[in-house]
Amino acid sequence: MSFLKIGFLAFLFLITSCKNQEENPALDANLEQAENLFATKQYRKAYYYYNQSFLFNKEQHNTKRAVFNLLRMAHIENLECDYIGSEATTTQAIKLFDKTIPIPYQTNAYISLGLNYMHLANYEDAKSMFEKVIQITDDSLTVYISKNNIGYLYIKQKEYQKAVRLLSEIENEKILQESPLDYARILDNKGIALFHLNDKLALSYLEKAKTIREANKDDSQIVSSYMHLAEYYKNQEPATAKEWTQKAYHSATKAFIPDDRLEALNLLFTTTTNNDLKNQYHDTYIHINDSLQQARQQAKNQFAKIKYDSEKAETEKTAYQYKMYGFIVLLILSVAVFILLYRLTIQKNKSKILETQYTTETKIAKRLHDELANDVHNTIAFAETQNLENEQNKETLLENLDTIYQRARNISNENKEINTGKNYLEQLKHMINAYSSDTINVILNTSALQEVPLNSEVKIALYRVLQELMVNMKKHSECSLVMISFKETNSALEINYSDNGKGTDNQLQIKNGLQNVENRIFSINGNITFDTEPNKGFKVKITIPK
């Protein structure tokens, strides 16, 4: 006789107890759907939603709900005879146990493991699970149900005396009298144990259990009583045994219990002498058994696939999360590096600007000292020592003063404030063209500059750079032609300067002489290159990013 009915009524009692003790907020959608399907015995469909609810509650850190879902899944796997799968699911639930898990959940898990071990003929481990339930629960009915399970284990191990002693200890407990179906299981198990010991009291226990079950109209347990009575009469009264077996078969068919139908068919096959009936029972047995095994294998495959798909999805989700975390970390590092480089660039540009300002101020001071101060000193000395009433001396003094004025005006013009507004381009053209003379022809193309928007900092730097290039040309190049052009590209403004002067092969001299120019370009994140050779003129290429 299968233990399925004997043990799982206790299992159902405990899992119902678990559900009744749920004090959490309203069920999530998946769990609600699963419970509705479970109530209508659509176990395989319910399994999927229990698994979805488990994943949801695990992510929400609702351990109690997660454990509840796993226990439901383990129960469904056991119902479908996937005992190894049920064992694994129950073990997964036990690993989640913490102080939030109620005792009924825990006893349910250990009973589940005990039942799975029993079906797998691992009787010692099954017994240890039932004993653990007895240790941790203070519910008397749960204790007696667990002891009844241990008694059944003794029967499976053919230790009938131990079974009788244990079942005799609990059969008269008052709480069992108030739970007739549990009481009937204990009586039925004791009757089977007594039967194997050839004790005449066996029949009275079996019949009493049957009477209780029929009164409570429990088809699953009634089948069990009918089968045990058939077994009792099998050798003594074959005809009576056959009658009980037929009753068991019809009750199992009515209650949709295929395992009991198979057991009844097997007993009918061995007790009948009619060959036609034997063949009929045999064919029916083969058909039911094949269908049952196929259905259970499909269920096992379905459960395994649901678990595999959810684990795969969780793994992919975890991998995606790690990838996103990596991306975020990389993004943060990139932003940090960008900010650092930006600050370093700003600091570097500030240094360049300060250096340029210092160089400019030094240059102005030097020109004031070397050019203007000497002229002023000489003019003062001339005025103190010469007769200014003399017309020629007076003319010389005026010429000297005019020279001083022109020098002061040139220095002022070279360092005066630059208008970066709408007149900027005209002012730039005027400054460059001012260096044109009878011996120097300046060709200027500024059409591209009109299309490119430049901020004030860039305009000032560009103005001063071109001014210094023109000053450098006038002092050193000895050229007759200067060309300056502006060109717009996709990403930058390009300025090209060239003259046909004498050039030089001394790059260091160029660097030193035009350091101010280079610093100004670097301060606006631009780039500058010099190209010159003796007697081949002088070229400069400037690139300023938009």
TrEMBL record:
Q: Which InterPro entries match?
A: HATPase_C_sf (IPR036890), HATPase_dom (IPR003594), Sensor_HK_TwoCompSys (IPR050482), TPR-like_helical_dom_sf (IPR011990), TPR_rpt (IPR019734)
Cite the EC number.
2.7.13.3
Q: Which reaction does it catalyse?
A: ATP + protein L-histidine = ADP + protein N-phospho-L-histidine
Q: What residues form the membrane-spanning segments?
A: 324-342
Annotated coiled-coil segments of the chain: 289-316
Q: Where are the TPR repeats?
A: 107-140
Would the keyword ATP-binding turn up in this protein's UniProt record?
Answer: yes
GO molecular function of the protein, one example?
A: ATP binding
Histidine kinase/HSP90-like ATPase domain span = 459-545
SUPFAM superfamilies with a match to the protein in the record: ATPase domain of HSP90 chaperone/DNA topoisomerase II/histidine kinase, TPR-like
- List UniProt keywords, sorted A-Z: ATP-binding, Coiled coil, Kinase, Membrane, Nucleotide-binding, TPR repeat, Transferase, Transmembrane, Transmembrane helix, Two-component regulatory system
List, alphabetically, the Pfam families matched: HATPase_c (PF02518)
- Tell me the PANTHER family matching this sequence: NITRATE/NITRITE SENSOR PROTEIN NARX-RELATED, NITRATE_NITRITE SENSOR PROTEIN NARQ
Q: What is this protein called?
A: histidine kinase
